[in-house]
Structures are given as C-alpha cells and as structure tokens.
Predict the 3D structure of the following.
Amino acid sequence: MPESHPSQYWEHFSHVADIGVRGYGHSLADSFEQTALAMTAVICDPTLVQPQKAVNINCEATDNELLLVQWLNALIYEMSVQGMLFSRFQIEISGLKLMAVAYGEPVDQKRHMPTVEVKGATYTELKVGQQEDGVWLAQCIVDV
Amino acid sequence: MDIQRLTRLSECSWQIEPHGNMQVPAIIYGDEKLIHAMDDKVYEQASNVATLPGIVGPSYAMPDAHWGYGFPIGGVAAFDADAGGVVSAGGVGFDISCGVRTLHTGLQRVDVTGKTEQLADALFREIPVGVGSTGHIHLSKSGIDAMLSGGARWAVESGYGAQRDLSYTEEKGCMAGALPKAVSDRAKERQRKEMGTLGSGNHYLELQEVMQIYDAKAAACFGIKQGDLLVSIHCGSRGLGHQIGTEFLAEMVNNASHYGIKLVDRELACAPIHSPVGERYLGAMRAAINCALANRQIITHLTRQVFVALFPQAELELLYDVSHNTCKLEKHAVDGQSKMLYVHRKGATRAFGPGHSELPEPFREVGQPVLIGGSMGTASYILAGNAGSETLSYASACHGAGRSMSRHKATKSWHGRQVINTLAEQGIALRSPSLRGVAEEAPGAYKDINAVVEATELAGLSRRVAKLKPVLCIKG
C-alpha cells in the first residue's frame, strides 16, 4: 500500500509467520518515519489514528541497523504501556542518537479495529542503507 | 525444501550432515510431503543452531517447523553449561512460555446445544482479548515481583483457582530459579495492566469436542472420552515476556564478541550459561515463565466463572498446562551418561514419556499430555509422550499446525467475515475484535495439522490420544 510520493513511502513484505515492515525516505530519519508508519499499518489503518497526543522517544545504538530495531522497540513499548497507536512522527538523527516525537491516540477497539499487537522488532531481514538512487531504505521483520 | 540435500534416517526423520561451522548434525522430522513443503529457511536455521557453542546432540526441527528468528519455530537444541554451552534469547523467543492449557468441563455437546452463542458472547465479554485490552487486575510493583516468583501458585493463593490446578501444571505451577530483580522496570511496567489477558495473533480460547480417541488407555488416564467438551487456552507471558526477549536479545547481540561468540545470524544472539548475562537472562526468563503460568491461571478462573453462571453442573478441572517457548534445565541421557542440559524449545512442546518423575502421578503410566493447538476451524490434538522420544528429540514434539502462508497472503485470500460465515456453517461460533485478524489467522493459512501429528507419531516423538474439534473460539 505505497503512498503517492514516489521516494517516500512504506510497504509490507512477507514472512511466513510474521510480517516485514519497510520504509523509504529522502533521509535516514525519513525512512525510519515510514518504517514506523508501516508498523502501525500492521496493527490497523494508520489513517484512522488521530495524532492528538505527543510522546517523546529517545534511543541510541552502535549502528544504524540496531538503531532501527531500538526505535521500533521503543515505539512498541510506548504503544503497550500507554495503550496508544501512533500515526505521525518527527525524527531527528544525530550520529547514532535518535530523538523523536510520536503522535497518536489511545487504542479504540471499535474504531481502529486493531488486528494484532506487535511483540517486538527483530534482527531478521534487517537492513538500513542508502540505495543507488539516493533513497534511504529501512526494514526488518516484526514479531506479531 | 530440497529433499536431495538431506539424508533420510527413517520414514519421518531427515538429517542435515554437518557442514561449515556446524558442530553437530541437524535432524528435521516430517513425512516427505511436509519436508518438501517446508521453508528452506528451516534448513538454514536448524544448521545455524548447530554452530552454537556447547551444543549437545543434534539441532532438531519438529514436523510443524517454519522460518523463525535465529532458531526455526519448531526448533529444539540442548546445551551443556560446563562445556561452554549457551543460552539464547532468540532460542526462546519473544513470547516466553507461550503455551496451551486444557480444562475438562464435565459437559457434553448436548449440554450446550442452543447455548453456544450465549456462551461465546459471555466468554468474549469477560476475557480481555485483542490489542489494547487490559486485565481486571492491576498489579503494584511488589505485587508484580510476587507474581514473578510464584507463577500459578501466586495466582491460586490470590484466589484465582484451586490447589489441585498446580499439580496439573508444568513445574507444579511455579518455575524455580526466577529472578524478579533481573526483570527490568520497563518489562514490569508493560505487564502492569496485562495480567489475565489473552493477547492477539494466534492466541485463543476454544471450547472443543473430543471427536476421536486413538489410545483408550491414555485417554482414560487423562480423563477424556468421545463427546466430552474441553476448554483450551493458548497464550503466554504477554508484554513482560516480549520486553524481556527484546532487551536480552539486544544485550546478547552487543556482548557476543566479548564472549568470543561468532554469530552467523544476529538473531541467534546468546551468552554463555555461566556468565553474568546468561544467568540474568535465565532468571528473567524463568520469571516470565511464572508470568505466563499466572496469566493462564487467571484466565482459567475467569473461564470457570462464565461456565458456572451458564451451566451450574460444569466442573472445569485442569487436564494439563504445557509451555512451548522455553529453556529448561533437564536431565537427559547422552552417550549412556546422565547429563543436566539446558534444553531450548522454541515452538516445540515438552513431551515426557511414561515414568518421568516430573509428571503428575496419574499420568506416569501413559506419559505426559502433549497439547497441540489448531487454528479456529481445524482440529486440535492431545498426544502422549513416548519413552523413546528422549533420544529422538530430548523428549519434545510439535506445538501446533505451523503457518504455511504469510499474513499478507492470507488477507489477500480471505475476508474475515467470509471466514466467520464458513466456520458458522461448520457449527463453530467465533468471536474476535478484528475481522482482519480473523482473515490473517484463517485455517487455510496453516499446515494440515492432521499430517503434522501423524508425522509426529510416525517419528516416535509422541502418540495420538484424542482429536478435538472446535465448538467455539475466542480469537485475539
């Protein structure tokens, strides 16, 4: 379900038991933002999630791939303890430190019709990098 | 999977000869059809597990095996701590101690005729299920630590169930060696409102009818006969287990080189059992096992309340509770010598044979009940452990049908409403908060469970005792 912009969008890819999340963007931060949207889309239609409440998320890692896993796991944690879903993200990445604000709202089973909760982001099919066309790609499998 | 790459040991047993850095062979169980249809990734992952330090005996994959993380789902491997053996967070998985618990009901189909819809509604109302659902019990910090130490025993002492339940739960309801201190505040926070919740994905609560008995003696021992109604609950350690898995996976990835461990796949992240990280993980993982046991015990209590309100004659005695994502210290015979090994089972069920001292007394003559979950429309099975499985798979068997189709493809193949209607035509009442979730979990997205359990029996891992058909299903 790619969005209209050709170089900034998200998609899912197949894993037999679980699901892959992949984001493309003009920068590393943009690709992380799209991957986060792809993860929300594992749970429900992201367009149904109102960006009403802001949550700050900071994390760091030793390389960009591990940073992606940290970022997604930090979101999974906030979704779980705050009972929220997120649909808008502002991300700044400086070196291997990520500072973000995630916007969303509390889960409403009737309105969001959430399909499945994400247990964790995995190192399987984990890739982060800039492609030949300059577009950044960030992806991994999430366990559901 | 390309059968040409395997050495056939018997009708349902296939060996991957050691290659590359494999220290031991890998053995995959399944009939030719199952092996042929099995993901190539199972070959790769079962081989990768065989490279880990201190592995004893082959790396195994059960007949329901499929592509997992590091270990295949359906993977079994044992490690000797004194030979540099490791414990792997990836080898247990995110949903620590996910498992199946089956209850008698004292009812037969005729007792619920005309009332199954009402029962389904009541169970769906009373048992928290799906994304964002919270339990009725909100634990304080000290309450969480008591739960993490006590497991199902804590739940029973807190009023959720009876003492008898503990005798019919693995580890008598309380996993020894749990270290609540090794569990992070974030993991505890994630669990605070999730006690007594079923979760989502492939987790469920089903009412099932015993359709067929294969082994009359074992069935009598387990207290089941044709026509009986049983309740099966499939869920795990919820957010706490997920967070422990997440945190230790990251820590083990970062520390692997420190311990001189070369990971062929980051998801195989592990640490020596005799190391600070390994010991903390084992303590945290055991605490998560207790969380799962307590969770299933609370759901049992809620289920009993619903049944007794609708069917005063119902008696929901526990048949057995068994986990299928664990690492446990067990005694096994290796080359004629008894050894204590850390047995990882990831999507594999422990299946002790007759006479095992850890079994409840009434089951010692026939072996452990091995509870195999289906998927909504498909059958579930109760098997019994075989004595011979100890040398075949460290006394392990399959855990379910195993997926054969991705969630993405499943949603392209079915609509949730269509699945619900088809099941209704088969007399199965389904309740779920998510139509897409129902489509993703459609029975057709799984392997043929009949073939999986037949192969399990033919391979000698366990034997069939009873086949169960769903009557109603509460799906996460």
About this structure: The helical segments of chain A are 28-43, 64-82, 109-112. The first helix of chain A runs from residue 28 to 43.
